[in-house]
Predict the structure.
Amino acid sequence: MAHPRPTVALDAHVSDNAATYAPPTVRDDFLAAIARGDSVMLAQLATNLTGCGNPLPSTTCVELGVPVGSTYGVAARRIVDQAAER
């Protein structure tokens, strides 16, 4: 069964006031893609999470090199930016 698209802003420079929140299944898929090292799935999910205001688990923050307390949106923007540099 396919997961519905998250309802999050796609603008990579969304202000904190405009943050939206992704469904738990989408956030779980994002974390699973990180754990698997699935760069293709991670890039697809990240594109749709750039405005997500949900807090990222601190262990994932450390793993991705973002400040502890960051949101999924911060991590997603970093992943999108890194993919664009390649």
Residues 20-85 form one domain. The chain has a mean pLDDT of 84. The two ends are 32 Å apart (CA to CA). DSSP finds four helices and no strands in the chain.
